[in-house]
Amino acid sequence: MNKGLFISFEGSDGTGKSTQVRLLTEYLRSEGYDVLLTREPGGTVISERIRNIILDPSTPEMDGHTEALLYAASRAQLVAEVLRPAIESGKIVICDRFMDSSIAYQGYARGLGQDTIRMINEFAVHGLQPDITFFMDLPPEKAMLRVESQGHKDRLEAEDMNFHDKVYQGFKELSRFYDKRYVRIDASESIEEISEKIRQYFRDYVERRDRA
Length: 212
Ligand code: TYD
What we know:
The chain is of the alpha/beta class. It has one domain (5-211): Rossmann fold, CATH 3.40.50. It has eight helices and five strands, in the order βαβααβααβααβα. The chain has a five-stranded parallel sheet, with helices on both faces. Helix 1 crosses helix 8 (191-211), helix 2 (45-55) packs antiparallel against helix 3 and helix 3 packs across helix 5 (114-125). The structure holds thymidine-5'-diphosphate. The site of thymidine-5'-diphosphate has 16 residues, from helix 4. Residues 13, 18, 39-41, 55, 71, 96-97, 101-102, 105-106, 154, 156-157 line the site of thymidine-5'-diphosphate.
């Protein structure tokens, strides 16, 4: 495989997404792939600074528009500095969240509208889209129980159940809309079962792509 590949993971907080991101990265590296792992918001010096501003629980007064623009600003830097060069050089890029998170959280849950969020993000990413998006599907009641058990909550996690419900509905709608690249993963299964399904999907995908 000599073409780059862009894989994103999406889903609500508390779905075990970051664990699966790590496991897939370890697996692909053990198979000899050149993998770049990154996360959103973050992944560059500038984007990590923006992340700290966005997630700071001591500033609940942040306006939704400010929040949406900061996520997009963090993403623009990540795309320009890291994602696009890595994909162009043939790496597999794995990103823990990407633009769909903004559509679900800011577009649906904050009520800013998916079209507006899509528009400001198009400006930020210049058409870059994941080839595969693994959607960790877990109803918010269950997901939030996991977040509760982790203790500390960031500013977004501290939102009420109604907010998290809308985030979840947003992701479900995105998975119907982008049915070609979305892969729904039942996040209530065991870590091992889930990671095997993800690995299997990846192997099939690469085989199909190399044959084409
Ligand atoms: P994340 O790093 O996944 O949280 P954690 O490491 O605690 O699992 O994401 C931080 C929060 O930011 C999370 O609640 C989702 C939210 N978020 C948005 O609201 N919009 C976005 O565009 C992104 C990327 C994340």
